[in-house]
Amino acid sequence: MMTNGPSVDEQIEIYRKMVVVRRMEEALGALHKQGGTRGPIHRCDGQEAVGVGATAMLRSSDQVTSTHRGHAHYIGKGLDVHRVVAEILGKETGYCRGRAGHMLVASAADGLVGGNAIVGAGIPAATGIALSLQLQGRDDVAMCLFGDGAAQTGICHESMNIAALWKLPVIFLLEHNQYGLTVHHAAQSSVADLSVRAAGYAMPAEIVDGNDSVAVYIAAANAVERARSGGGPTLIEAKTYRLEGFSTSDMGGYQDEAEIALWRARDPLTVARARLAGEIDTEVLDGLEADAAQVVDDAFAAALADPPPEFELHPASAAYSGGA
Amino acid sequence: MAKLRYAEALNRALREEMQRDPLVFLFGEDIGSYGGVFKVTRGLMDEFGAARVRDTPISEQTLTAMAVSAAMAGSRPVLEIMYADFMPLTLDALINQASIYEYIWADQVRMPFVLRTQGGGGAGAGAQHSKSLDSLVAHIPGLKAVAPATPWDAYGLLKSAIRDPGPVIFLEHKLLYNMRDEVPDGEETVPLGRARLVREGTDVSIIASSRMVHESLLAADRLAGEGIAAEVVDLRSLRPLDLDTLLGSVARTHHAVVVNEGWRFCGYAAEVSATLMDHAFDDLDAPVARVTMPDLPIPYSEPLERAVLPGPDEIVAAVRRTVA
Ligand SMILES: Cc1ncc(C[n+]2csc(CCOP(=O)(O)OP(=O)(O)O)c2C)c(N)n1
Ligand SMILES: [Mg+2]
Fold it and tell me: Is the CB–ligand 1 distance for residue A102 below 6 Å?
């Protein structure tokens, strides 16, 4: 099975979204430095090609489960930048009215349910969604984006076995950014390439350059086609790198500077822009970047001015606790 | 007497116990070279080596089951579970394994392990990183559970927990790690199962643990201004309960308010309240009051999180109702 790469128009849209995500992450970093954010924020700088490239061919009725590091997944799946930023800032206008915060964003209408801060929990979640899609006879698919750390959990093994056993329409998209929190993958995993594990489930698997959005797109599109046509699950291991530390509370000191420099030179935005430069004018690309930056600036300006939510006792509370 | 931060006091207890007993070893996520995300294990890998201070993959269910069995095999494991919110992943090992063997196997085995974790809200960490699940662990027969409120108790209770012949769940609080206070210079331990009378009073007993002790003291200050003399009891041990101290206090004040940061329904405060009814009904001039979280997940946004966490306002109001 072979799918053609993304069209130039699709590549432009992927690049635009990647720039949006990067500007968003940078703006959050700056806001954090000024004390304008609350709680830890897990930026995905350097990983945009995975989250955006892998979700670019999905329909809004396809279902994505995400992680604590989901900003590229949110934007890739078509969520509105302003409402994402508003949720991250805990505002009433956010996708979850400020209740979720940046790790748990969900938009059921966009097929994103959702972010998850329990590492690994999105993997069985996507598997269960895939079972339901299969039972309903829908040709939609489930895609689970998860990390190399999450791949070490027991539920990852259990999910992959069940998905392969029942030929469920799910794509396991492993975002291998080399670290689980502060621990390097070499200290977490007995094998360097996690995709070798797919053989244990007789599940097709492939390794892709996670910093090349086109490579990620092609691998994901093939897997989506397989899942839609009843061919069952696929594991895609996208090799990438987390450029800005684990979170805004990361005290650092455990990442090798040379390693960071190596990956920075292969920044997914640089890779995508270089590809596009052969197809379209530089001025067009510059304009596109400026527009993306403006979208993010406007989103922050609006979200910062938005009202905070007001507390109300949810009916679920009163109903189950027998009153005060 | 030295003044130490709560996190430093825990670190010192771990260091001393590892020096004293070569059977003690530590394992958990990010506890080795990084020194723990709350810095409790800082420097210990350098001092004791990577065999006794082990970074692990993200595998809470397996790690907890291994703590139980390694303890049975003669070691004294101290496992760190990064957030109390991940405790549900450990529960089979605690409820179906650790809790049963000593009794069911007729005292043939012992399981001297400590499971350290930290909970609590107030840091903007969202619904999956903020919970207090005291009742979840205190519910389990065969396990002890402690929740220190001060650096002194953090130090002394952890030493006792490590030396205890059975399983101890050690509940820290993320907002207390930076609290600085006196810690004894010697090798003094604090016994498990003993509460501490923090403030004497004649009108009402406020019974709390962990961070809620400090909130209760603030409430007691305010109540003093209204002419209500509140006694504050720090439980320290959630299980076993120090009945003597509790009953002694209620016999003096004839009123009790139980404060717990966890959920209300089937919560820890309900257990303490029922225990007082069992043993002190004749001493009580009013029903025991409870101050808890409402039965809701902890929302992210600051005004919402503030609204659900119990604090001095709620405690003062409950005391007023009780003594009225
Ligand atoms: C069950 C569970 N254990 C531990 C954590 C703490 N934690 C949060 S993220 C993380 C590392 C996850 O690594 P990975 O899956 O590779 O994702 P990345 O952060 O690299 O994107 C850990 C250990 C958690 N949130 N949930
Ligand atoms: Mg990772």
Answer: no
Above 50 in pLDDT, residue B38? yes
Q: Which of A31, A68, A182, A190 to mutate against chain B (most B CBs within 10 Å)?
A: A182
What integer pLDDT is reported at residue A177 of this predicted model? Answer: 98
Whether residue A23 is contained in a domain is answered as yes
Interface of B with A in 9-48 (CB under 8 A): 29-30, 32-34, 37
Strand order in the sheet with A170-176: A63-65, A142-147, A170-176, A234-239, A205-209
Could you tell me the two tokens for A288? 């596109």
Q: Which of B34, B294, B297 sits opposite A313 (nearest CB)?
A: B294
pLDDT band for position B302 (50/70/90)?
Answer: very high
Tens-digit pLDDT profile for residues B143-188: 999 999 999 999 999 999 999 999 999 999 999 999 999 999 878 9
ipTM for the complex shown: 0.93
User: What domains are there in chain B, each with its CATH number?
Assistant: 2-183 (3.40.50.970), 196-323 (3.40.50.920)
* Number of domains making up chain A: 1
Residue A169 near ligand 1, beta carbon < 6 Å: no
CA dihedral A307, A308, A313, A317 (to 10 degrees): 130
Residue A139 is predicted with a pLDDT of: 95
Q: Check: CB of residue A215 under 8 Å from CB of residue A272.
A: no
Q: Is residue A93 part of a domain?
A: yes
Cα A50 from chain centroid? 7
In a domain, A318, yes or no: no
CATH number at residue A20: 3.40.50.970
Which residue out of B38, B58, B117, B130 has the highest number of ligand 1 atoms within 8 Å of its CB and is therefore the one to mutate? B58
Q: CA–CA separation, A236 vs A173, rounded Å? A: 5
- Closest-CA residue of B relative to A93 is B301
Supply the DSSP symbol for A107.
Answer: B
Full domain range(s) for residue A266: 8-308
Is B295 within 8 Å of A321 when comparing Cβ atoms? Answer: yes
List, for residues B84-135, the tens digit of each pLDDT value.
999 999 999 999 999 999 999 999 999 999 999 999 999 999 999 999 999 9
* Averaged pLDDT of chain B: 97
Ligand 2 mean position to B53 CA, how many Å? 22
pLDDT in tens, A67-76: 999 999 999 9
Within an 8 Å CB–CB cutoff, is residue B314 touching chain A?
A: no
Q: Mind telling me the catalytic residues of B?
A: 60, 129
Q: Could you report the per-residue pLDDT of A4-47, keeping only the tens digit for each?
A: 799 999 999 999 999 999 999 999 999 999 999 999 999 999 99
Which atom of ligand 1 lies closest to the CA of A118?
26
- How far apart CA A126 and CA A129 sit, in angstroms, is 5
Q: For a ligand 1 pocket test, name from A41, A66, A119 the mutation site with the most ligand atoms within 8 angstroms of its C-beta.
A: A119
Taking the Cβ of residue B103 and every Cβ of chain A, the question of whether any pair is shorter than 8 Å is answered with no
> CA A238: distance to chain centroid?
12
